[in-house]
Amino acid sequence: MTDRSMSAQINPIISEYADIILCRQGLPFQQRAVAVISLIVEGTVNQINALTGKVGRLQGVECKAVMTKAS
Q1: Which residues, in sequence order, are CB contacts of 11 under 8 Å at separation 6+?
Q2: 8-47 burial, b if ≥16 CB within 10 A, otherwise e?
Q3: Tens digits of residue pLDDT in 6-33
Q4: In this structure, is the dihedral angle defined by the CA atoms of residues 9, 4, 38 and 57, taken in order, positive or negative?
C-alpha cells in the first residue's frame, strides 16, 4: 500500500478472513513510502478471491495472489 492510513480499512478485512490465514507479516518501507503485508492462507479459491478482491478495491492498495494446489 502506498497510503499507510489504509491499514485501518485493511485490518478489518483481514480479520474477517482470519479462519483461512496461517501467517501474516508486515513490512513498512518508510523511505519508499510503501508498506507490504504478506499473508499465507489456506482456503478455497472463492475465499481467497473474495479476500483479495476486497483488499484490491481499496484506494492506494495493490493486491496480488499466488496459488498452488495442495496435495
Answers
A1: none
A2: ebbeebbeebeeeeeeeeeeeeeeeeebebebebebeeee
A3: 889 999 999 999 999 999 999 998 888 8
A4: positive
Select the highest-mean-pLDDT range: 12-21, 31-40, 59-68: 12-21
Name the CATH superfamily for 4-56.
ACT-like. Chain A, domain 2 (3.30.70.1150)
C-alpha cell at 60: 492506494
DSSP string, the chain: ---GGGHHHHHHHHHHTGGGEEEEEEEEEGGGTEEEEEEEE---HHHHHHHHHHHHTSTT-----------
Q: Model pTM? A: 0.86
